[in-house]
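Why show two proteins at once? Because comparison is the fastest way to build intuition. When a single record is shown, students tend to memorize it. When two are placed side by side, the eye starts asking what differs. So, the first record is below.
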Amino acid sequence: MKAICSLLLPLYHYHYYYYYYYYYYYYYYYYYYYYYYYYYYYYYYYYYYYYYFYYYYYYYYYYYYYYYYFYYYCKLYYY
């Protein structure tokens, strides 16, 4: 029995460390995937915000362009 235990005990420790590193790898992979998804989400959010800002920049740009265009046009011809 002692011989069996002496054989099983290292095997038990081997399986224990095997599952320990397996779960460690699993959680490492999980957090890596989580941070990758998080990074991707914020990259997409940043891209969307940049596009939104770009859109409104040109919107106001053309708005003020036509505003001053008609302003000087009306001032020139009607005042």
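Second record. Ask yourself what differs from the first in the token line.
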Amino acid sequence: MSVFQRLNGYAWVGLLFVVALGRAQVSPSAAPRAIDPGPVPADPAQRVAVFVPPVLFDEHAFIFVYRSLVNAGWYPVLVGADTVIATGFDETMVRPELRRNELTPDRFAGLVLIGGSGAALHWQDSILFAAARAFEQEGKPVAAYGLAVPILARAGLLDGRAAAFFPESEGIPLITDHGARFAFGPVVADGNIITGHGDDAARRFVETIIRALEDRR
């Protein structure tokens, strides 16, 4: 069964969980802030916005991205649809610090969208579309992983660009129908847009993001 055949069921389950998330408790042992990024830097050029879906986010990619950014000297700020608890596939819980309508490129060096089945809840998200466009227009790195890639496609940011995505026949039209050029490979950078997918690509994905951030310093 492909990721897309499973997606509808996961998305509906995710919607049922949203109400319960506000009552959930953070699991300290699971929270990626086990690596303390330190105090929030005053300089926005040191901060990176990391958007997580409210449910069923890709924990492997999220934790890898978060820890790698911290280790490279960046401060990841978690962003969500709201500031209630977000829950991953394996019930890792994190609390976003900002809502997505607070995302502006003057406050961050770049934007990363984490995937997972819950990202499909944002495929029609005009607020997130506008935020991603604003970062792209400022020339700042905008990255999406897995099922977050169609968010960039629907925002119009992949039109004419090469993008990495799941190679299943059900998946490719989710980006090519919006002008993207499907590219084989786990990670693709086209200008300031970075896309990636797959269980084994998180390291390369975040390394590409960090290089793009460093290039703008």
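One difference worth noting in the second protein: The helical segments are 3-21, 59-71, 126-137, 149-154, 173-176, 202-215.
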